[in-house]
């Protein structure tokens, strides 16, 4: 049965809207969404804006009842205030929509070639063609060159080059292979060469692309704890100002009665301050600026991550990234390229090179890790040992590699009078212990060879055998080579300047670890780390009150990725790692964390700066409006009216217009974020307090004055 190769997905042109300045067309395009957001059923989630909307409804009723230019002007601008706030959110959300559209195209319907009763190494498994949507977890499918991978999963057999441009926007093909830490494949991507067998890991309808779509659309964005706390603070401030405005009324009524001679105005009459003015005063005082921009700031932060090919499933993690103290990195595949390849067999104690190669190959026949496969290939190339099918030795029992035992191997039964034989290969310490446990004595020679390889940053794998009736003995060492990714040192230096300590953790021995750590320029390392050691290290750091970020790719990293405050998994990694973390880096670049930290810091700084600005702004407005209002009743207060605004009506109108316009003016800043430069937190804080606090106080004085002059000049109904 053959399946039709589905058409290639459209070359993904990653739809990214630059993080630059706001395009007016974008505002226009987001208008329908902004209007929809006026619905009180959704708006109530933003308490500040909800109050403004209630106020606008109230003044609308008042204006209809008792029409005046002043009343209508205020009413229109109150509605505009809510609309501008909605616009900020809609524009922020709109930026992910184009990208979601591109992703939807990648999520095309495909057919899957499902294998029935598949078992590892099976030569001709039975095949059936099903719709990709019918696939269940643990189904096994085969995908060949030219075909689209029907679902997310792990490669369980074979190696292939895969075009992942549909999700990463990167056109260079990537290698996906079974066994190692590069085994995860994503549904919707296309196999370019060879054939792989994939075990499906996704639940139906919960594919990676589905999750990406809802992420970039902002549908699954949850408010972060800090954001919720700030929202509560804003709601509390709103209530305080509401009470303040209400208690103003008796004072006004009393004053008016007291100053009986003063004529009724639109601002104050025999019933006290008019409803229009009370609502205006309230809106001017409550923190509308930050209330309007808060959600846009959060969405924009997530969006900035997406622009850098990072998918964050938790907003909390994005915030935590801004405060990270310690970064843990896995060595193989994270700091190094990760395709550890066998380059040399180094026999010891008079063992013939061919004998070592033969034993190493036997122990690797069923080893689906890249390391294991490279040993089989090296034995074939250097010693002409044909890669025997593991089926050739039907009675052999293969011992798979685990990060826990740090060994793999084979048990061969005694046959035809020959004694039973067991072969192990793995980390020196682990294999030496196995040798000792089986009656052997590891020689000094092994240690020398192992240390020699380790000192260069290579990974030594000791090969040993145990034949029934004899003590176990080491046969030699396999030299696995790996390469440190380029540019690591500069990036780690940059992290140091940001106050972040980098620690490399590896299952490799301390000597290898030291060599790689020095070459890459990390601050510290932890060697011979089992999964639980990684976890313990993170817990230890966290107990000291530090926020920990971790990048990793392997299944053995999964617990640590889940425990870390920020867990970034490489897209090349295993499904388990990608599930466990709270971010996936589509570029699989471990130093991406620098950018993630910068975005996190920028998010925190932007929110802080705009909150400062918003509150300073409102305090300034207080001093601009109150004197103007009461000057009508107490002419003697005129001295306080330092701004010399034309009339109470024009003062209030100017304040409301200013209040609304400031939202629009700040939308680009909310989306782009306040610039972050590496420096200490306290320096940043004081600088921002100065700029945004003082700026926030000064801006309304200037803005309201200008508006006041313009209003009196151009609007006939207001003097
Ligand atoms: N296929 C294999 N068979 C036998 N031993 C192996 C195999 N692969 C790796 N090892 C040994 O086990 C050790 C631990 O491997 P593991 O993959 O857990 O850690 P690691 O990948 O080196 O660590 P990290 O990825 O955290 O840097 C390796 O250093 C190596 O000595
Ligand atoms: K306000
Ligand atoms: Mg690893």
Automatic annotation (TrEMBL):
Predominant localisation class: membrane
Transmembrane region(s): 43-64, 70-88, 228-253, 273-299, 619-637, 652-671, 691-715
Alphabetized InterPro entries for the sequence: ATPase_P-typ_cyto_dom_N, ATPase_P-typ_P_site, ATPase_P-typ_TM_dom_sf, ATPase_P-typ_transduc_dom_A_sf, ATPase_P-type_domA, HAD-like_sf, HAD_sf, P-type_ATPase_bsu_IA
Binding site for Mg(2+): 553, 557
GO molecular function, one term: ATP hydrolysis activity
SUPFAM superfamilies, per the entry: Calcium ATPase, transduction domain A (SSF81653), Calcium ATPase, transmembrane domain M (SSF81665), HAD-like (SSF56784)
Chain residues that bind ATP: 367, 371, 401-408, 425
Taxonomic superkingdom: Bacteria
Entry EC number(s): 7.2.2.6
Reactions mediated catalytically: K(+)(out) + ATP + H2O = K(+)(in) + ADP + phosphate + H(+)
Gene3D superfamilies: Calcium-transporting ATPase, cytoplasmic domain N, Calcium-transporting ATPase, cytoplasmic transduction domain A, HAD superfamily/HAD-like
Keyword terms, alphabetized: ATP-binding, Cell membrane, Ion transport, Magnesium, Membrane, Metal-binding, Nucleotide-binding, Phosphoprotein, Potassium, Potassium transport, Translocase, Transmembrane, Transmembrane helix, Transport
Cellular localisation: Cell membrane
Protein topology in the membrane: Multi-pass membrane protein
P-type ATPase A domain residues: 126-217
One cellular component (GO) term of this entry: plasma membrane
Active-site residues per Swiss-Prot or TrEMBL entry: 330
The protein's role, per its UniProt record: Part of the high-affinity ATP-driven potassium transport (or Kdp) system, which catalyzes the hydrolysis of ATP coupled with the electrogenic transport of potassium into the cytoplasm. This subunit is responsible for energy coupling to the transport system and for the release of the potassium ions to the cytoplasm.
Similarity comment: Belongs to the cation transport ATPase (P-type) (TC 3.A.3) family. Type IA subfamily.
Subunit details: The system is composed of three essential subunits: KdpA, KdpB and KdpC.
Listed name of the protein: Potassium-transporting ATPase ATP-binding subunit
Source organism per UniProt: Asanoa hainanensis
């Amino acid at each position: 049965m053959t399946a039709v190769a589905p058409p290639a997905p459209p070359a993904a042109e990653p739809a990214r809207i630059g993080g630059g300045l706001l395009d007016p067309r974008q505002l226009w395009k987001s208008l329908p969404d902004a209007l929809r957001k006026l619905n009180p059923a959704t708006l109530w989630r933003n308490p500040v804006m909800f109050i403004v909307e209630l106020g606008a409804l109230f003044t609308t009723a008042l204006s209809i009842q008792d029409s005046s230019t002043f009343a209508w002007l205020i009413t229109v601008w109150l509605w505009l205030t809510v609309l501008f706030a909605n616009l900020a959110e809609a524009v922020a959300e709109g930026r992910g929509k184009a990208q979601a559209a591109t992703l939807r195209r990648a999520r095309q319907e495909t057919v899957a070639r499902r294998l029935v009763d598949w078992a590892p190494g099976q030569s001709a498994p039975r095949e059936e063609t099903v719709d990709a949507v019918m696939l269940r977890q643990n189904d096994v499918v085969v995908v060949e060159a030219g075909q689209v991978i029907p679902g997310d999963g792990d490669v369980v057999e074979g190696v292939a080059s895969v075009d992942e441009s549909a999700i990463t926007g990167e056109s260079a093909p990537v290698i996906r292979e079974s066994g190692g830490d590069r085994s995860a494949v994503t549904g919707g991507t296309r196999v370019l060469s060879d054939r792989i067998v994939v075990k499906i890991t996704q639940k139906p309808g919960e594919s990676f692309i589905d999750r990406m779509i809802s992420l970039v659309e902002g549908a699954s964005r949850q408010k972060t704890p800090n954001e919720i706390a700030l929202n509560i603070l804003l709601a509390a401030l709103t209530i305080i100002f509401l009470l303040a405005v209400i208690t103003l009324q008796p004072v006004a009524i009393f004053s008016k009665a007291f100053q009986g001679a003063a004529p009724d105005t639109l601002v104050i009459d025999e019933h006290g301050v008019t409803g229009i003015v009370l609502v205006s005063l309230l809106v001017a005082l409550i923190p509308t600026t930050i209330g309007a921009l808060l959600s846009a700031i959060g969405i924009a932060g997530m969006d900035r991550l997406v622009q850098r090919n990072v998918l964050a499933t938790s907003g909390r993690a994005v915030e935590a990234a801004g405060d990270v103290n310690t970064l843990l990195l896995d060595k193989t595949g994270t700091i190094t390229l990760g395709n550890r390849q066998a380059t040399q067999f180094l026999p010891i104690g008079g063992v013939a090179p061919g004998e070592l190669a033969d034993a190493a190959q036997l122990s690797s026949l069923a080893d689906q890790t890249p390391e294991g496969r490279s040993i089989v290939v090296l034995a074939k190339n250097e010693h002409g040992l044909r890669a025997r099918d593991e089926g050739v030795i039907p009675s052999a029992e293969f011992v798979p590699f685990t990060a826990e035992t740090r060994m793999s191997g084979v048990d061969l039964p005694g046959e035809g009078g020959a004694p039973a034989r067991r072969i192990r290969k793995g980390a020196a310490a682990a294999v030496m212990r196995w040798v000792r446990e089986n009656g052997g004595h590891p020689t000094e020679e092994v240690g020398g060879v192992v240390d020699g390889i380790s000192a260069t940053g290579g990974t030594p794998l000791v090969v040993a055998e145990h034949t029934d009736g004899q003590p176990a003995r080491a046969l030699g060492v396999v030299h696995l080579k790996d390469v440190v990714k380029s540019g690591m040192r500069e990036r780690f230096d940059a992290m140091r300047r940001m106050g972040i300590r980098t620690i490399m953790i590896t299952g490799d021995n301390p000597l290898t670890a030291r060599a790689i750590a020095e070459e890459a320029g990390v601050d510290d390392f932890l060697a011979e780390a089992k999964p639980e050691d990684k976890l313990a290290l993170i817990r230890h750091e966290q107990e000291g009150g530090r926020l920990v970020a971790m990048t990793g790719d392997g299944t053995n990293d999964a617990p640590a990725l889940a425990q870390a405050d920020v867990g970034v998994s490489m897209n090349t990694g295993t499904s388990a790692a990608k599930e466990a973390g709270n971010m996936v880096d589509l570029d699989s670049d471990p130093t991406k964390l620098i950018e993630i930290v910068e975005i996190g810091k920028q998010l925190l700084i932007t929110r802080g700066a705009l909150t400062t600005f918003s509150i300073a702004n409102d305090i300034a407005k207080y001093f601009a409006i109150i004197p103007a209002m009461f000057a009508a009743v107490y002419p003697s207060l005129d001295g306080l009216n330092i701004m010399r605004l034309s009339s109470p009506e024009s003062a209030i109108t100017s304040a409301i217009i200013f209040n609304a316009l400031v939202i629009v003016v700040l939308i680009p800043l909310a989306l782009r974020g306040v610039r972050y430069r590496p420096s200490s937190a306290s320096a940043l804080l004081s600088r921002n307090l100065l700029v945004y606090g003082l700026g926030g106080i000064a801006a309304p004085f200037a803005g309201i004055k200008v508006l006041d002059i313009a209003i009196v000049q151009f609007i006939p109904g207001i003097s």
